[in-house]
Request: fold
Amino acid sequence: MKNAVNREIPEELLKDGKEVYQGKYYMDGKYIKRDSPKTRRYVKPQSSKLCSSIRKACERCGAHDGMTVSFHSEFREGDYVASMVAKVLVEEMGLKDITIAATSLGNAQDLIADYIEQGKVIGIQTSGVRGRIGEVISAGKLATPAIIRSHGGRPRAVEAGEVHIDIAFLAASTSDCWGNAKGVGGKNNCGSMGFAIHDSHYADHTVIITDTLVDFPNRPSSISAENVDCVCVVDSIGDATKIATKEARVTENPRELMMAEHAAEVIAATPYFTDGFSFQTGAGGPSLAVNRFIEKRMVEKGIKMSFALGGVTSAVCQLLDKGLVGAILDTQDFDMGAIKHLAEHPKHHEISMSEYANPANKGAYVNQLDFVVLSALEIDVDFNVNVITGSDGILRGAPGGHPDTAAGSKCCIIVTPLTRGRMATVCDEVVTVTTPGDCVDILVTDYGIAVNPLRNDLAQCLDAAGIEHVTIEWLRDKAYSLVGTPDALEWEDQVVAVVEARDGTLLDVVRKIRPLQLDG
Amino acid sequence: MEIQKPAIAGTLESSDAQIVVEPFTDGIQLSIESSVMNQYGRQIKATVLETLEHLGVKNGKITVNDKGALECTLKARVECAVFRSCGASEKNIPWGGVVR
Reply:
Protein backbone atom coordinates (compact mmCIF):
# COMPACT_ATOMS: atom_id res chain seq x y z
CA MET A 1 0.00 0.00 0.00
CA LYS A 2 1.33 3.44 -0.93
CA ASN A 3 1.57 6.04 1.83
CA ALA A 4 1.38 9.82 1.77
CA VAL A 5 5.01 10.14 0.64
CA ASN A 6 4.38 7.69 -2.20
CA ARG A 7 6.30 4.81 -0.69
CA GLU A 8 5.11 1.23 -1.09
CA ILE A 9 4.64 -0.36 2.34
CA PRO A 10 4.38 -4.18 2.25
CA GLU A 11 0.97 -5.45 3.39
CA GLU A 12 2.54 -7.91 5.84
CA LEU A 13 3.78 -4.98 7.94
CA LEU A 14 0.28 -3.55 8.26
CA LYS A 15 -0.89 -5.65 11.17
CA ASP A 16 -1.53 -5.08 14.91
CA GLY A 17 -2.97 -1.68 14.14
CA LYS A 18 0.02 -0.45 12.13
CA GLU A 19 -0.98 2.04 9.46
CA VAL A 20 0.81 3.78 6.63
CA TYR A 21 1.95 7.39 6.97
CA GLN A 22 -0.94 9.74 6.25
CA GLY A 23 0.41 13.23 6.81
CA LYS A 24 2.14 15.00 9.66
CA TYR A 25 -0.96 15.73 11.80
CA TYR A 26 -2.85 12.46 11.20
CA MET A 27 -2.72 11.36 14.86
CA ASP A 28 -3.54 14.79 16.30
CA GLY A 29 -6.21 14.63 19.00
CA LYS A 30 -6.31 10.82 19.12
CA TYR A 31 -5.97 9.17 22.53
CA ILE A 32 -3.26 6.73 23.62
CA LYS A 33 -3.35 4.29 26.54
CA ARG A 34 0.07 4.41 28.12
CA ASP A 35 1.94 1.21 28.91
CA SER A 36 3.23 0.66 32.42
CA PRO A 37 6.24 -1.21 33.76
CA LYS A 38 6.06 -4.25 35.97
CA THR A 39 8.34 -3.26 38.79
CA ARG A 40 9.79 -5.05 41.76
CA ARG A 41 8.87 -3.92 45.27
CA TYR A 42 11.65 -3.06 47.67
CA VAL A 43 9.77 -3.00 50.99
CA LYS A 44 12.51 -4.31 53.22
CA PRO A 45 15.13 -1.63 53.79
CA GLN A 46 18.48 -2.23 52.10
CA SER A 47 21.54 -0.16 52.75
CA SER A 48 22.74 -0.07 49.15
CA LYS A 49 21.77 -1.15 45.63
CA LEU A 50 25.39 -1.73 44.62
CA CYS A 51 26.04 -4.96 42.73
CA SER A 52 29.53 -6.39 42.49
CA SER A 53 29.26 -6.98 38.74
CA ILE A 54 27.06 -6.30 35.74
CA ARG A 55 26.26 -9.99 35.68
CA LYS A 56 24.98 -9.89 39.28
CA ALA A 57 22.76 -6.95 38.37
CA CYS A 58 21.45 -8.80 35.31
CA GLU A 59 20.63 -11.82 37.44
CA ARG A 60 18.91 -9.70 40.04
CA CYS A 61 16.78 -8.12 37.30
CA GLY A 62 15.82 -11.49 35.86
CA ALA A 63 17.76 -11.27 32.59
CA HIS A 64 16.44 -13.94 30.23
CA ASP A 65 16.40 -15.18 26.66
CA GLY A 66 14.15 -13.14 24.40
CA MET A 67 14.27 -9.97 26.47
CA THR A 68 14.52 -6.36 25.35
CA VAL A 69 17.27 -4.19 26.79
CA SER A 70 17.86 -0.49 26.32
CA PHE A 71 20.85 1.84 26.25
CA HIS A 72 21.21 5.58 25.83
CA SER A 73 23.72 7.12 23.46
CA GLU A 74 24.71 10.32 25.27
CA PHE A 75 28.37 9.26 24.99
CA ARG A 76 27.89 8.92 21.22
CA GLU A 77 31.08 7.45 19.68
CA GLY A 78 32.74 7.28 23.10
CA ASP A 79 30.23 4.91 24.72
CA TYR A 80 31.61 1.83 26.49
CA VAL A 81 28.50 0.64 28.32
CA ALA A 82 26.35 -0.82 25.54
CA SER A 83 29.13 -3.11 24.33
CA MET A 84 30.18 -3.95 27.89
CA VAL A 85 26.67 -5.04 28.84
CA ALA A 86 25.99 -6.87 25.57
CA LYS A 87 29.17 -8.86 26.15
CA VAL A 88 28.01 -9.92 29.61
CA LEU A 89 24.57 -10.92 28.33
CA VAL A 90 25.81 -12.90 25.34
CA GLU A 91 29.25 -14.21 26.32
CA GLU A 92 29.07 -14.53 30.13
CA MET A 93 25.43 -15.47 30.54
CA GLY A 94 24.89 -17.17 27.18
CA LEU A 95 21.58 -15.41 26.57
CA LYS A 96 20.00 -15.35 23.13
CA ASP A 97 17.15 -13.83 21.12
CA ILE A 98 17.90 -10.39 22.55
CA THR A 99 16.38 -7.20 21.23
CA ILE A 100 18.36 -4.00 21.69
CA ALA A 101 16.38 -0.77 21.91
CA ALA A 102 18.94 2.02 21.91
CA THR A 103 18.65 5.74 21.32
CA SER A 104 21.42 5.30 18.74
CA LEU A 105 24.03 2.77 17.67
CA GLY A 106 27.34 3.41 15.96
CA ASN A 107 31.02 2.52 15.73
CA ALA A 108 31.28 2.29 19.52
CA GLN A 109 28.97 -0.73 19.39
CA ASP A 110 30.67 -2.66 16.57
CA LEU A 111 30.81 -5.67 18.90
CA ILE A 112 27.02 -5.93 18.72
CA ALA A 113 27.35 -6.51 14.96
CA ASP A 114 29.09 -9.81 15.83
CA TYR A 115 26.16 -10.81 18.04
CA ILE A 116 23.75 -10.02 15.21
CA GLU A 117 25.78 -12.24 12.87
CA GLN A 118 25.79 -15.01 15.49
CA GLY A 119 22.01 -14.74 15.82
CA LYS A 120 22.20 -13.82 19.52
CA VAL A 121 20.77 -10.36 18.95
CA ILE A 122 17.64 -10.70 16.85
CA GLY A 123 16.09 -7.25 17.05
CA ILE A 124 17.37 -3.67 16.81
CA GLN A 125 15.27 -0.60 17.52
CA THR A 126 17.17 2.66 17.28
CA SER A 127 17.20 6.27 16.19
CA GLY A 128 20.53 5.92 14.46
CA VAL A 129 22.62 3.18 12.97
CA ARG A 130 26.20 3.63 11.84
CA GLY A 131 29.31 1.51 11.62
CA ARG A 132 29.33 -2.26 11.27
CA ILE A 133 25.87 -2.66 12.75
CA GLY A 134 24.46 -0.76 9.78
CA GLU A 135 26.41 -2.95 7.38
CA VAL A 136 25.26 -6.27 8.86
CA ILE A 137 21.64 -5.13 9.02
CA SER A 138 21.86 -3.96 5.41
CA ALA A 139 23.29 -7.36 4.47
CA GLY A 140 20.12 -8.97 5.82
CA LYS A 141 21.80 -10.67 8.79
CA LEU A 142 19.44 -9.43 11.51
CA ALA A 143 16.65 -11.95 12.12
CA THR A 144 13.88 -9.33 12.16
CA PRO A 145 13.75 -5.98 10.37
CA ALA A 146 15.37 -3.20 12.38
CA ILE A 147 12.96 -0.49 13.48
CA ILE A 148 14.17 3.07 12.96
CA ARG A 149 12.41 5.72 15.02
CA SER A 150 13.02 9.40 15.56
CA HIS A 151 13.92 10.76 18.99
CA GLY A 152 10.25 11.62 19.51
CA GLY A 153 9.02 8.38 18.01
CA ARG A 154 11.02 6.32 20.49
CA PRO A 155 9.34 7.52 23.71
CA ARG A 156 6.02 7.41 21.86
CA ALA A 157 6.59 3.73 21.01
CA VAL A 158 7.65 3.01 24.61
CA GLU A 159 4.51 4.66 25.98
CA ALA A 160 2.35 2.82 23.45
CA GLY A 161 3.84 -0.49 24.57
CA GLU A 162 5.16 -1.17 21.07
CA VAL A 163 8.53 -1.69 22.70
CA HIS A 164 8.53 -2.88 26.29
CA ILE A 165 11.94 -2.66 27.94
CA ASP A 166 12.82 -5.46 30.35
CA ILE A 167 16.05 -3.90 31.57
CA ALA A 168 17.41 -0.41 30.91
CA PHE A 169 21.19 -0.21 31.36
CA LEU A 170 21.92 3.46 31.83
CA ALA A 171 25.44 4.88 31.85
CA ALA A 172 25.69 7.70 34.40
CA SER A 173 28.62 9.99 35.10
CA THR A 174 27.84 9.95 38.81
CA SER A 175 25.53 7.94 41.01
CA ASP A 176 25.09 7.32 44.70
CA CYS A 177 24.68 3.77 46.02
CA TRP A 178 20.92 4.24 45.82
CA GLY A 179 20.78 5.09 42.11
CA ASN A 180 20.32 8.85 42.07
CA ALA A 181 22.28 9.50 38.90
CA LYS A 182 23.32 12.27 36.52
CA GLY A 183 25.59 13.12 33.62
CA VAL A 184 27.83 15.63 35.38
CA GLY A 185 30.34 15.73 38.25
CA GLY A 186 32.13 12.49 37.43
CA LYS A 187 35.29 11.26 35.71
CA ASN A 188 33.55 11.02 32.33
CA ASN A 189 30.70 13.45 31.84
CA CYS A 190 28.10 13.33 29.09
CA GLY A 191 26.10 16.31 30.34
CA SER A 192 22.41 15.89 29.67
CA MET A 193 21.00 12.42 30.34
CA GLY A 194 17.82 13.34 28.50
CA PHE A 195 17.97 10.14 26.44
CA ALA A 196 17.94 7.98 29.58
CA ILE A 197 15.26 9.58 31.77
CA HIS A 198 12.18 8.25 29.99
CA ASP A 199 13.54 4.69 29.92
CA SER A 200 13.92 4.75 33.70
CA HIS A 201 10.19 5.50 33.98
CA TYR A 202 9.00 2.78 31.62
CA ALA A 203 11.48 -0.10 31.90
CA ASP A 204 10.61 -2.99 34.19
CA HIS A 205 14.12 -2.79 35.64
CA THR A 206 16.75 -0.07 35.61
CA VAL A 207 20.47 -0.63 36.19
CA ILE A 208 22.72 2.39 36.62
CA ILE A 209 26.29 1.88 35.44
CA THR A 210 28.76 4.48 36.65
CA ASP A 211 32.48 5.01 37.12
CA THR A 212 32.10 7.67 39.82
CA LEU A 213 30.27 6.64 42.96
CA VAL A 214 29.43 9.68 45.09
CA ASP A 215 28.01 10.18 48.57
CA PHE A 216 24.28 9.82 49.11
CA PRO A 217 22.21 11.78 48.17
CA ASN A 218 23.41 12.70 44.66
CA ARG A 219 20.89 15.49 44.17
CA PRO A 220 19.60 17.08 42.01
CA SER A 221 19.60 13.97 39.85
CA SER A 222 18.51 13.13 36.29
CA ILE A 223 17.53 9.59 37.19
CA SER A 224 15.70 9.16 40.45
CA ALA A 225 16.56 6.31 42.81
CA GLU A 226 12.86 5.44 43.01
CA ASN A 227 13.19 3.92 39.51
CA VAL A 228 16.52 2.15 39.98
CA ASP A 229 17.00 -1.52 40.89
CA CYS A 230 20.79 -1.84 40.85
CA VAL A 231 23.95 0.25 40.65
CA CYS A 232 27.18 -1.11 39.13
CA VAL A 233 30.55 0.58 39.35
CA VAL A 234 32.95 -0.02 36.43
CA ASP A 235 36.39 1.40 35.58
CA SER A 236 35.13 3.68 32.81
CA ILE A 237 31.71 4.25 31.24
CA GLY A 238 32.98 6.06 28.17
CA ASP A 239 35.33 8.55 26.58
CA ALA A 240 33.65 11.95 26.62
CA THR A 241 36.26 13.36 24.25
CA LYS A 242 34.69 11.23 21.50
CA ILE A 243 31.27 12.85 21.93
CA ALA A 244 32.22 15.55 19.44
CA THR A 245 32.33 13.36 16.32
CA LYS A 246 32.88 14.59 12.82
CA GLU A 247 29.10 14.97 12.37
CA ALA A 248 29.13 17.44 15.25
CA ARG A 249 32.30 19.29 14.34
CA VAL A 250 32.80 23.01 14.02
CA THR A 251 33.51 23.64 10.37
CA GLU A 252 36.24 25.77 8.79
CA ASN A 253 35.15 24.74 5.30
CA PRO A 254 34.45 27.94 3.32
CA ARG A 255 31.71 26.26 1.29
CA GLU A 256 29.89 25.23 4.45
CA LEU A 257 30.39 28.66 6.00
CA MET A 258 28.91 30.29 2.90
CA MET A 259 25.83 28.07 3.12
CA ALA A 260 25.50 28.80 6.83
CA GLU A 261 25.65 32.53 6.15
CA HIS A 262 22.90 32.17 3.54
CA ALA A 263 20.78 30.20 5.99
CA ALA A 264 21.15 33.00 8.52
CA GLU A 265 20.06 35.50 5.84
CA VAL A 266 16.99 33.37 5.16
CA ILE A 267 16.14 33.20 8.86
CA ALA A 268 16.44 36.96 9.18
CA ALA A 269 14.07 37.44 6.23
CA THR A 270 11.16 35.54 7.82
CA PRO A 271 8.50 37.04 10.12
CA TYR A 272 9.49 34.65 12.92
CA PHE A 273 12.83 36.41 13.43
CA THR A 274 11.59 38.71 16.18
CA ASP A 275 12.39 39.19 19.85
CA GLY A 276 11.75 35.95 21.74
CA PHE A 277 12.22 33.60 18.78
CA SER A 278 13.36 30.02 19.35
CA PHE A 279 15.98 28.03 17.50
CA GLN A 280 17.66 24.70 17.07
CA THR A 281 20.46 23.41 14.89
CA GLY A 282 21.22 19.81 14.08
CA ALA A 283 24.59 18.09 14.21
CA GLY A 284 26.43 18.62 10.97
CA GLY A 285 29.04 21.13 9.88
CA PRO A 286 26.98 23.63 7.90
CA SER A 287 23.91 23.62 10.14
CA LEU A 288 25.97 24.02 13.30
CA ALA A 289 27.82 26.90 11.69
CA VAL A 290 24.58 28.88 11.41
CA ASN A 291 25.00 29.72 15.10
CA ARG A 292 27.95 31.94 14.17
CA PHE A 293 26.01 34.00 11.70
CA ILE A 294 22.73 34.27 13.59
CA GLU A 295 24.47 36.20 16.37
CA LYS A 296 25.37 39.11 14.11
CA ARG A 297 21.80 39.33 12.83
CA MET A 298 20.37 39.31 16.36
CA VAL A 299 22.67 42.09 17.52
CA GLU A 300 21.87 44.18 14.43
CA LYS A 301 18.15 43.84 15.04
CA GLY A 302 18.45 44.17 18.82
CA ILE A 303 16.57 40.95 19.53
CA LYS A 304 17.10 37.94 21.78
CA MET A 305 16.25 34.29 21.58
CA SER A 306 13.76 32.97 24.16
CA PHE A 307 15.15 29.46 24.13
CA ALA A 308 17.50 27.25 22.17
CA LEU A 309 16.65 23.56 21.91
CA GLY A 310 18.66 20.50 21.13
CA GLY A 311 21.29 18.98 20.49
CA VAL A 312 23.47 21.59 22.30
CA THR A 313 26.91 22.84 21.27
CA SER A 314 29.37 25.32 22.73
CA ALA A 315 28.32 27.77 20.03
CA VAL A 316 24.81 28.17 21.45
CA CYS A 317 26.11 28.17 25.03
CA GLN A 318 28.27 31.16 24.13
CA LEU A 319 25.19 32.98 22.83
CA LEU A 320 23.53 32.41 26.21
CA ASP A 321 26.63 33.67 28.04
CA LYS A 322 26.47 36.85 25.95
CA GLY A 323 22.89 37.38 27.10
CA LEU A 324 21.40 36.64 23.67
CA VAL A 325 19.52 33.47 24.71
CA GLY A 326 17.03 33.18 27.59
CA ALA A 327 17.37 29.46 28.22
CA ILE A 328 18.83 26.30 26.75
CA LEU A 329 16.70 23.15 26.81
CA ASP A 330 19.14 20.31 26.45
CA THR A 331 18.43 16.69 25.58
CA GLN A 332 21.91 15.89 24.31
CA ASP A 333 25.32 17.56 24.38
CA PHE A 334 27.53 17.58 21.31
CA ASP A 335 30.83 18.76 22.81
CA MET A 336 32.79 19.17 26.02
CA GLY A 337 32.01 22.87 26.28
CA ALA A 338 28.27 22.24 26.29
CA ILE A 339 28.65 19.50 28.92
CA LYS A 340 30.54 21.85 31.22
CA HIS A 341 28.03 24.63 30.58
CA LEU A 342 25.09 22.41 31.59
CA ALA A 343 26.76 21.67 34.91
CA GLU A 344 27.46 25.32 35.65
CA HIS A 345 24.69 27.46 34.23
CA PRO A 346 21.23 27.64 35.88
CA LYS A 347 19.52 28.68 32.64
CA HIS A 348 20.83 25.58 30.86
CA HIS A 349 18.23 22.89 31.58
CA GLU A 350 18.25 19.17 30.99
CA ILE A 351 15.07 17.80 29.36
CA SER A 352 14.06 14.24 28.58
CA MET A 353 13.73 12.92 25.05
CA SER A 354 9.97 12.73 25.57
CA GLU A 355 9.72 16.35 26.70
CA TYR A 356 11.86 17.23 23.72
CA ALA A 357 10.07 15.55 20.86
CA ASN A 358 7.38 12.96 21.72
CA PRO A 359 4.38 13.57 19.42
CA ALA A 360 2.05 11.57 21.68
CA ASN A 361 2.43 13.64 24.84
CA LYS A 362 0.67 16.89 25.69
CA GLY A 363 3.11 19.14 23.91
CA ALA A 364 6.75 18.51 23.19
CA TYR A 365 9.20 21.42 23.07
CA VAL A 366 9.71 20.94 19.34
CA ASN A 367 6.19 22.29 18.90
CA GLN A 368 7.38 25.60 20.36
CA LEU A 369 10.23 25.94 17.85
CA ASP A 370 10.35 28.77 15.36
CA PHE A 371 13.43 27.66 13.43
CA VAL A 372 15.33 24.48 13.00
CA VAL A 373 18.37 24.18 10.75
CA LEU A 374 19.18 20.61 9.71
CA SER A 375 21.42 18.62 7.38
CA ALA A 376 20.49 15.94 4.87
CA LEU A 377 22.19 13.03 3.13
CA GLU A 378 19.66 13.46 0.32
CA ILE A 379 16.62 15.62 -0.42
CA ASP A 380 14.31 14.96 -3.35
CA VAL A 381 12.15 17.19 -5.51
CA ASP A 382 9.20 16.60 -3.15
CA PHE A 383 11.41 17.90 -0.29
CA ASN A 384 11.48 14.45 1.34
CA VAL A 385 14.72 14.05 3.28
CA ASN A 386 16.87 10.97 3.82
CA VAL A 387 19.24 10.86 6.77
CA ILE A 388 19.41 7.10 7.33
CA THR A 389 20.74 5.38 4.19
CA GLY A 390 23.71 6.33 2.05
CA SER A 391 23.15 6.81 -1.66
CA ASP A 392 24.40 3.23 -2.00
CA GLY A 393 21.45 1.96 0.04
CA ILE A 394 23.45 0.98 3.15
CA LEU A 395 22.21 2.05 6.61
CA ARG A 396 24.63 4.68 7.91
CA GLY A 397 22.79 7.58 9.48
CA ALA A 398 20.54 8.79 12.21
CA PRO A 399 17.15 10.47 12.01
CA GLY A 400 17.57 11.55 15.64
CA GLY A 401 15.32 14.56 16.17
CA HIS A 402 15.30 15.51 12.48
CA PRO A 403 11.68 14.46 11.74
CA ASP A 404 10.43 15.82 15.06
CA THR A 405 11.94 19.28 14.84
CA ALA A 406 11.03 19.54 11.15
CA ALA A 407 7.39 18.75 11.94
CA GLY A 408 7.17 20.91 15.06
CA SER A 409 8.97 24.05 13.89
CA LYS A 410 7.43 26.94 12.00
CA CYS A 411 10.36 27.07 9.60
CA CYS A 412 12.55 24.07 8.84
CA ILE A 413 15.68 24.85 6.84
CA ILE A 414 17.82 22.12 5.32
CA VAL A 415 21.43 23.13 4.65
CA THR A 416 23.45 20.80 2.48
CA PRO A 417 26.00 20.93 -0.32
CA LEU A 418 24.48 20.16 -3.73
CA THR A 419 26.90 17.28 -4.26
CA ARG A 420 29.19 15.22 -2.05
CA GLY A 421 31.90 13.64 -4.15
CA ARG A 422 29.94 12.04 -6.97
CA MET A 423 26.72 11.90 -4.95
CA ALA A 424 23.90 14.27 -5.84
CA THR A 425 22.36 15.46 -2.58
CA VAL A 426 19.38 16.96 -4.39
CA CYS A 427 17.83 14.15 -6.38
CA ASP A 428 14.71 12.78 -8.06
CA GLU A 429 13.81 10.40 -5.28
CA VAL A 430 15.59 9.84 -1.98
CA VAL A 431 16.68 6.28 -1.23
CA THR A 432 14.73 6.29 2.05
CA VAL A 433 12.29 8.87 3.40
CA THR A 434 13.06 9.75 7.01
CA THR A 435 11.51 13.24 7.13
CA PRO A 436 8.43 13.81 4.98
CA GLY A 437 8.50 16.71 2.53
CA ASP A 438 5.46 18.38 4.10
CA CYS A 439 7.64 19.16 7.15
CA VAL A 440 10.51 20.77 5.19
CA ASP A 441 10.26 24.42 4.18
CA ILE A 442 13.48 25.77 2.71
CA LEU A 443 16.59 24.19 1.18
CA VAL A 444 19.90 26.06 1.21
CA THR A 445 22.70 24.68 -0.97
CA ASP A 446 25.99 26.03 -2.27
CA TYR A 447 24.35 26.48 -5.70
CA GLY A 448 21.13 28.15 -4.63
CA ILE A 449 18.12 28.26 -2.34
CA ALA A 450 14.75 26.56 -2.97
CA VAL A 451 11.47 27.06 -1.12
CA ASN A 452 8.88 24.30 -0.75
CA PRO A 453 5.88 25.27 -2.95
CA LEU A 454 3.69 24.54 0.11
CA ARG A 455 5.29 27.63 1.70
CA ASN A 456 4.59 30.39 -0.77
CA ASP A 457 4.45 32.75 2.22
CA LEU A 458 8.13 32.13 2.87
CA ALA A 459 8.97 32.52 -0.82
CA GLN A 460 7.39 35.99 -0.68
CA CYS A 461 9.48 36.85 2.39
CA LEU A 462 12.66 35.95 0.52
CA ASP A 463 11.54 38.00 -2.48
CA ALA A 464 10.86 40.99 -0.24
CA ALA A 465 14.34 40.67 1.25
CA GLY A 466 15.93 40.37 -2.19
CA ILE A 467 17.15 36.83 -1.61
CA GLU A 468 17.27 34.92 -4.86
CA HIS A 469 15.77 31.46 -5.01
CA VAL A 470 15.26 28.76 -7.62
CA THR A 471 13.08 25.68 -7.95
CA ILE A 472 14.28 22.48 -6.38
CA GLU A 473 14.06 20.87 -9.82
CA TRP A 474 16.63 23.41 -11.03
CA LEU A 475 18.96 22.37 -8.21
CA ARG A 476 18.47 18.69 -9.04
CA ASP A 477 19.27 19.34 -12.71
CA LYS A 478 22.36 21.29 -11.72
CA ALA A 479 23.51 18.43 -9.49
CA TYR A 480 22.99 15.82 -12.21
CA SER A 481 24.79 18.01 -14.76
CA LEU A 482 27.85 17.95 -12.48
CA VAL A 483 27.95 14.30 -11.45
CA GLY A 484 25.82 12.52 -14.05
CA THR A 485 22.36 11.06 -13.52
CA PRO A 486 22.73 8.07 -11.21
CA ASP A 487 21.34 4.65 -12.07
CA ALA A 488 18.51 3.47 -9.83
CA LEU A 489 19.56 1.17 -7.00
CA GLU A 490 18.53 -2.46 -7.27
CA TRP A 491 16.99 -4.24 -4.31
CA GLU A 492 16.18 -7.73 -3.10
CA ASP A 493 12.69 -8.37 -1.69
CA GLN A 494 13.91 -8.75 1.91
CA VAL A 495 13.01 -5.81 4.16
CA VAL A 496 15.99 -5.14 6.46
CA ALA A 497 14.63 -2.09 8.26
CA VAL A 498 11.34 -0.32 8.80
CA VAL A 499 11.31 3.45 9.13
CA GLU A 500 8.51 4.63 11.38
CA ALA A 501 7.16 8.15 11.17
CA ARG A 502 7.26 9.91 14.51
CA ASP A 503 3.56 9.16 15.07
CA GLY A 504 4.15 5.40 14.65
CA THR A 505 2.77 5.06 11.12
CA LEU A 506 4.99 3.49 8.48
CA LEU A 507 6.99 5.99 6.46
CA ASP A 508 9.29 3.72 4.45
CA VAL A 509 11.14 0.43 4.39
CA VAL A 510 14.78 -0.33 3.60
CA ARG A 511 15.35 -3.47 1.58
CA LYS A 512 18.49 -5.50 1.12
CA ILE A 513 20.62 -3.92 -1.57
CA ARG A 514 21.60 -5.94 -4.62
CA PRO A 515 25.17 -4.83 -5.40
CA LEU A 516 25.87 -4.00 -9.03
CA GLN A 517 27.94 -6.68 -10.77
CA LEU A 518 29.73 -5.58 -13.92
CA ASP A 519 30.47 -8.34 -16.36
CA GLY A 520 33.73 -8.45 -18.31
CA MET B 1 48.48 3.83 -28.44
CA GLU B 2 50.02 0.74 -26.93
CA ILE B 3 50.47 -0.02 -23.26
CA GLN B 4 54.15 -0.90 -23.10
CA LYS B 5 54.84 -1.05 -19.37
CA PRO B 6 52.86 -0.91 -16.14
CA ALA B 7 51.83 2.61 -15.19
CA ILE B 8 49.69 4.31 -12.62
CA ALA B 9 47.80 7.60 -12.33
CA GLY B 10 45.55 9.15 -9.74
CA THR B 11 45.15 8.72 -5.99
CA LEU B 12 42.82 7.08 -3.52
CA GLU B 13 41.60 10.41 -2.20
CA SER B 14 37.85 11.03 -2.08
CA SER B 15 36.57 12.25 -5.48
CA ASP B 16 39.62 10.84 -7.29
CA ALA B 17 40.30 7.53 -8.99
CA GLN B 18 43.45 5.48 -9.24
CA ILE B 19 44.06 3.81 -12.57
CA VAL B 20 46.63 1.05 -13.12
CA VAL B 21 47.38 -0.08 -16.67
CA GLU B 22 49.47 -3.11 -17.54
CA PRO B 23 50.49 -4.78 -20.80
CA PHE B 24 48.14 -7.52 -21.96
CA THR B 25 47.92 -9.26 -25.29
CA ASP B 26 44.34 -10.37 -25.57
CA GLY B 27 42.07 -7.29 -25.72
CA ILE B 28 40.96 -5.12 -22.82
CA GLN B 29 40.67 -6.69 -19.40
CA LEU B 30 38.91 -4.22 -17.11
CA SER B 31 38.25 -4.47 -13.39
CA ILE B 32 36.45 -1.76 -11.45
CA GLU B 33 36.07 -1.05 -7.77
CA SER B 34 34.11 2.01 -6.78
CA SER B 35 32.66 3.68 -3.71
CA VAL B 36 29.71 4.67 -5.92
CA MET B 37 29.44 1.33 -7.75
CA ASN B 38 25.71 0.81 -7.25
CA GLN B 39 24.76 4.10 -8.85
CA TYR B 40 27.61 4.84 -11.26
CA GLY B 41 29.30 1.49 -12.02
CA ARG B 42 27.94 1.28 -15.56
CA GLN B 43 28.85 4.89 -16.32
CA ILE B 44 32.38 4.42 -14.99
CA LYS B 45 32.86 1.37 -17.21
CA ALA B 46 31.54 3.23 -20.25
CA THR B 47 33.76 6.27 -19.57
CA VAL B 48 36.91 4.14 -19.20
CA LEU B 49 36.19 2.11 -22.34
CA GLU B 50 35.37 5.21 -24.39
CA THR B 51 38.57 6.92 -23.24
CA LEU B 52 40.68 3.87 -24.14
CA GLU B 53 39.00 3.66 -27.53
CA HIS B 54 39.63 7.35 -28.12
CA LEU B 55 43.32 6.80 -27.39
CA GLY B 56 43.39 3.81 -29.71
CA VAL B 57 44.27 1.37 -26.94
CA LYS B 58 43.30 -2.09 -28.12
CA ASN B 59 45.02 -4.27 -25.51
CA GLY B 60 45.66 -3.81 -21.82
CA LYS B 61 44.80 -4.83 -18.29
CA ILE B 62 43.09 -1.86 -16.65
CA THR B 63 42.36 -1.66 -12.93
CA VAL B 64 40.16 1.16 -11.68
CA ASN B 65 39.87 2.02 -7.99
CA ASP B 66 37.34 4.81 -7.97
CA LYS B 67 36.53 6.98 -4.97
CA GLY B 68 33.65 8.90 -6.47
CA ALA B 69 35.55 10.76 -9.19
CA LEU B 70 33.64 12.90 -11.66
CA GLU B 71 33.64 11.77 -15.29
CA CYS B 72 36.23 14.37 -16.33
CA THR B 73 38.59 13.19 -13.57
CA LEU B 74 38.24 9.56 -14.56
CA LYS B 75 38.96 10.41 -18.18
CA ALA B 76 42.05 12.44 -17.28
CA ARG B 77 43.41 9.70 -15.01
CA VAL B 78 42.96 7.02 -17.66
CA GLU B 79 44.66 9.19 -20.30
CA CYS B 80 47.56 9.94 -17.96
CA ALA B 81 48.09 6.28 -17.05
CA VAL B 82 48.15 5.29 -20.71
CA PHE B 83 50.61 8.09 -21.63
CA ARG B 84 52.89 7.08 -18.79
CA SER B 85 52.76 3.46 -19.93
CA CYS B 86 54.14 4.37 -23.34
CA GLY B 87 56.54 7.12 -22.29
CA ALA B 88 54.43 9.92 -23.73
CA SER B 89 53.76 11.78 -20.54
CA GLU B 90 57.00 13.82 -20.46
CA LYS B 91 56.77 15.69 -23.73
CA ASN B 92 54.60 13.88 -26.21
CA ILE B 93 51.09 14.42 -24.85
CA PRO B 94 48.92 15.01 -27.93
CA TRP B 95 47.39 18.30 -26.74
CA GLY B 96 44.72 19.32 -29.17
CA GLY B 97 44.82 15.86 -30.70
CA VAL B 98 43.18 13.05 -28.80
CA VAL B 99 43.47 15.14 -25.65
CA ARG B 100 41.07 18.02 -25.83
In short: The domain at 7-85 of chain B is CATH 3.30.230.10 (Ribosomal Protein S5; domain 2). The longest strand of chain B covers residues 28-34. Chain B touches chain A through 19 residues (CB under 8 Å).
